[in-house]
Each structure stands twice: as structure tokens, then as C-alpha cells.
């Protein structure tokens, strides 16, 4: 079975405190329990020595079985509530979706 990966990277505003970032990480981490179409979830912070991350510090990867599941996630109230927590502290986001080979 193929898996649809939804990769999200965040660059936070300079004004975002460590507590702000932790609240965002915690809120994102609660989504899989609220949305069973997320079949896997993981996240981490950049530790690459290459210095090519363009100040993106946090990476989250969600897995879905279908594009419809992903599309429903994007418009779901739970996702919108998370974005409302994120938005005041977000400088920039980078999103890439792909079918795992």
C-alpha cells in the first residue's frame, strides 16, 4: 500500500518565544488523536550541519491513505483551529506532499 506524505516545515517569527513554539508543537501533536485519517505523525527539529534550512527549524510529517483524506484534513475544523494557534507566530511555512515510493 502506498502512503501519501504531507511534509510541513515552519520558520517562526523572531518574536515567537520557546513557550509559543512548544504550544504549537503540542497542538500539532494532538491532531492525530482527533483525526483518524492521519495514519502516522512524526516531527523533529533541524539538526543538519549543512546550513541549508533557510531558518526553517521544525518539520512535521503526516501520512494519509488517500488524497481525499488529506484534502478533508486541510479543511477540517480541527486543522483550522491548529492554524489559528500557529498563525500569530509563523514567519513562513513550506509544504510538500508526495506519494512514498
Task: Sketch the topology as an H/E string, one letter per element.
Answer: EHEEHHE
In terms of per-residue confidence, which ranges show pLDDT below 50 for 5 or more consecutive residues?
none
Share of helical residues? 25-40%
- Structural class by sheet pairing and helices: alpha+beta
Multimeric state? single chain
**How far is it from the N-terminal to the C-terminal residue, by CA?**
10 Å
What is the general shape?
globular
Which percent range describes the beta-strand content?
Answer: 25-35%
Main beta sheet = 4 strands, antiparallel
Structurally, the number of domains stands at 1
The first-level CATH class name: Alpha Beta
Strand order of the largest sheet: 2-3-1-4
At CATH level 2, the architecture is: 2-Layer Sandwich
The DSSP helix count reads 3
Features:
101 residues, alpha+beta, Alpha-Beta Plaits, four-stranded antiparallel beta sheet, globular
Fold and architecture overview:
The chain is of the alpha+beta class and 101 residues long. The protein has one domain (4-99): Alpha-Beta Plaits, CATH 3.30.70. It has three helices and four strands, in the order βαββααβ. A four-stranded antiparallel sheet has the order 2-3-1-4. The longest helix is centred in the N-terminal third of the chain and has 17 residues, at 18-34. The protein is globular, with a radius of gyration of 14 Å. The model has no long low-confidence stretch (mean pLDDT 98).
